[in-house]
Amino acid sequence: MKKKLLALILAATMAFPVCAFADDAEEETATEAVAEEETEAASSILVMQGTDDNGIVWTIAINTENAKGCVSLTPQGEDTTYVTGPISFDEGSFTIADEEDGQDYVFGYEDVSETETVLTYEPTGSEVKLTYVDQTALADENVQNYMIYAGTDTDGNQLTFVFDTENNALAINQKKPDGTSETLAGTYEETEGENSSVMHFTTEAGAESDLELVPVDELAKEMDITVEGETIRVSMVDTKVLQAE
Questions:
Q1: Which residues contact 219 (CB under 8 A, 6 or more apart)?
Q2: 68-74 vs 126-132, strand pairing mode
Q3: How far is CA 75 from the centre of its chain?
Q4: Do 45 and 20 meet the contact criterion of CB atoms below 8 Å apart?
Q5: Can you name the residues that pair with 118 across neighbouring β-strands?
Q6: How close are the terminal C-alpha atoms of the chain, in Å?
Q7: How far apart are CA 200 and CA 114, in angstroms?
Q8: Among the listed residues 85, 12, 30, 14, the one whose alpha carbon sits nearest the alpha carbon of residue 245
Q9: What are the φ/ψ torsions at residue 35 (nearest 5 degrees)?
Q10: Which among 116, 194, 198, 211 has most CB atoms closer than 10 A?
Q11: How many CB atoms lie within 10 A of CB 189?
C-alpha cells in the first residue's frame, strides 16, 4: 500500500468495544472513569488475525492480565469453532483449557520478528502468519455496526481496516515492521458492482482515494483490497472473541 494513503497520522481517541475475558467491575458513574477502564481493558488484550493455506480464517485474542485466551477458526464453508479458557505458555507453544469441553488445546507459535508471529495447529495442519489487529482504530465505541479486516502487505506492514457501516466511516491503521504505527480516518461513499465495490474514501484532512473491495468467498471472510494499484489480502476479524465471557 502506497505511503501517501497513510500520510496523515492521527491519534485514536477510543478503543473499539473489547470486554473479552474481563473481570466484572463495579459500575462507574463518571464518564471519564468508564472510558479509562475500557481503554485499559483493550490494552491488556492482544488480538491477531490470519488465514492459513487451507483457507481457515483465524482470530486469536489473549488477555494478558487475566491469563485467558480465545481462538476462533472458520474453515471455508463450515461453522466456526471456538476454544476459550485459561491460557498457559511454554517455549514455542501455548495451551488453552477449554471451558466447554474440558480439553486442552495446544497451539504452536514462533515470533519471527518484533511484529511477525506464526501460529501452527497440528490437528488442522495449519501454519498461519498472524497480523496484529489495532484496537484503537475505531473512533466511536458506541457504534454497533462495524466490520474489521486485517492483513499484512508485501512490505511487512500490518494493516487493520475498520468499516463503520452505520456512519459510512473508515479507519485504517498501519503497523510497520519497526513497530511504529499510524492511523488514517475519514468517511466513504460506496458504489457496488456485480462482483466488487468501490469506496471513495475522504480523510479528515480532505485527501481522497478509491479502495476497490473484492470478496474472495461468498461470506466475505476474506477480501482483496486494492488501493492505487496495490492489492492486499485481508480476512475478517471474528469480534465474538472480544465479547466472550
A1: none
A2: unpaired
A3: 18
A4: yes
A5: 110, 129
A6: 37
A7: 34
A8: 85
A9: -60, -40
A10: 211
A11: 10
Q: 18, 45 in Cβ contact below 8 A?
A: yes
Q: Which residue has the cell 479528515?
A: 204
Instruction: Enumerate residues 6+ apart whose C-beta is below 8 A from 171.
Output: 12, 137, 138, 139, 160, 161, 162, 164, 183, 184, 185
Binning pLDDT at 50, 70 and 90, where does residue 112 land?
Answer: confident
Structural contact between residues 212 and 223, judged by C-beta atoms closer than 8 angstroms? no
CA distance 89 to 36: 29
How far is Cα 101 from Cα 237, in angstroms, rounded to an integer? 24
Whether 70 and 87 have beta carbons less than 8 Å apart is answered as: no
Q: How confident is the model at residue 228 (pLDDT cuts 50, 70, 90)?
A: confident
pLDDT of 10 over the 60 cut: no
Q: Which residue has the cell 477449554?
A: 98
Q: Write the DSSP symbol of residue 139.
A: S
CA dist., res. 135 & res. 139, Å (int): 10
* 19-62 pLDDT tens trace: 344 443 344 433 344 444 444 444 568 899 999 999 999 999 98
Q: What is the pTM assigned to this prediction?
A: 0.80
Q: Which of 97-106, 109-118, 223-232 has the lowest mean pLDDT?
A: 109-118
